């Protein structure tokens, strides 16, 4: 590749979820590139190096970064890449991509036989023609908690989507397709859409009932958003023990369209309660009625405002 005369400021990382810390680093990257009159570039990976469940599909991550005006190179985490020393990796960045400044996020490291300190990367940079710069840690201004993808995963697994949204800068969501289920919900007046995630390696939040929003993508390219209640679990009242975990969404407002095979996106607004077994279907119906009321209140009030704040566009 020919990058003669072109400055390239780069950073390397998983960037899973593109949370506020990642966005802070990306803006700093753009500033550094602007100062040099060069391009900003992110090197990320097609899978998580530690095989953690993902906070967003790789294609969505790439789109988020590119939307900020940053070039992206997605590297396959192959055995050959794993075997590269930090020095050889930096040499490859300089030789193949023209990288002459490397912005390193807080606690970021890479490469086999990697240095044990930031100073070690600075020294490697001197030998490979790359200036290495450290980015400060990003902490939440309101509470002083450091933002990380691991922290967000723990929040979602622990059924704490509101705090996760604070760190992501948006509500956590899953994209998938509506598939056929047992259709038991419609027999008690609460039909549900069974959602199968497109990305099998994406994190599914902890089991329980959530207030949510569902975005339906239609054939003509438009999208409609509806308030919904969502259950993750095994449906213990109507299913036998050992039933597979499902993601079921009941759309509020008397929704009755046929949406099997439709692409959807569900957002997790707030955790309502744990999944539980009821002694009768009447008991389940009473609880579902209370859940639906809670969702309607949330989506029509504070959480409806938050949804508009977190999501820049409904297109």
UniProtKB/TrEMBL annotation:
Keyword annotations for this protein, in alphabetical order, are: Nucleotidyltransferase, Transferase
Entry EC number(s): 2.7.1.26, 2.7.7.2
- Nucleotidyltransferase as a keyword of this entry, yes or no, is yes
- Would you tell me the protein name for this molecule? Riboflavin biosynthesis protein RibF
């Amino acid at each position: 590749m020919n990058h003669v005369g072109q400055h390239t400021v780069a950073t390397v990382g998983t960037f899973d979820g593109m949370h506020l810390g990642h966005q802070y680093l990306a803006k700093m990257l753009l500033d550094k590139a602007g100062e040099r009159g060069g391009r900003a570039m992110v090197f990320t990976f097609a899978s998580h190096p530690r095989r953690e469940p993902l906070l967003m599909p790789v294609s969505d991550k790439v789109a988020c970064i590119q939307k900020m005006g940053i070039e992206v190179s997605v590297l396959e985490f192959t055995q050959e890449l794993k075997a590269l020393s930090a020095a050889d990796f930096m040499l490859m960045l300089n030789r193949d991509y023209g990288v002459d400044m490397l912005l390193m996020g807080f606690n970021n490291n890479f490469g086999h036989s990697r240095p044990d300190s930031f100073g070690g990367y600075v020294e490697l940079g001197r030998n490979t023609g790359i200036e290495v710069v450290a980015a400060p840690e990003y902490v939440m201004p309101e509470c002083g908690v450091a933002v990380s993808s691991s922290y967000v995963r723990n929040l979602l697994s622990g059924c704490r989507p509101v705090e996760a949204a604070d760190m992501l800068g948006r509500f956590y969501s899953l994209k998938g397709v509506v598939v056929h289920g047992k259709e038991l919900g419609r027999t008690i007046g609460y039909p549900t859409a069974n959602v199968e995630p497109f990305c099998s390696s994406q994190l599914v939040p902890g089991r329980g009932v959530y207030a949510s929003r569902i975005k339906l993508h239609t054939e003509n390219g438009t999208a409609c958003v509806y308030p919904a209640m969502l259950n993750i679990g095994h449906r213990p009242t109507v299913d036998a023990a050992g039933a597979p975990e499902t993601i079921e969404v009941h759309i509020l407002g008397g929704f009755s369209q046929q949406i099997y095979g439709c692409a959807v996106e569900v957002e997790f607004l707030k955790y309502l309660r744990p999944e539980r077994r009821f002694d009768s279907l009447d008991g389940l119906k009473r609880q579902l009625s209370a859940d639906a009321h809670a969702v309607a209140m949330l989506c029509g009030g504070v959480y409806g405002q938050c949804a508009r704040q977190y999501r820049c566009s409904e297109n």
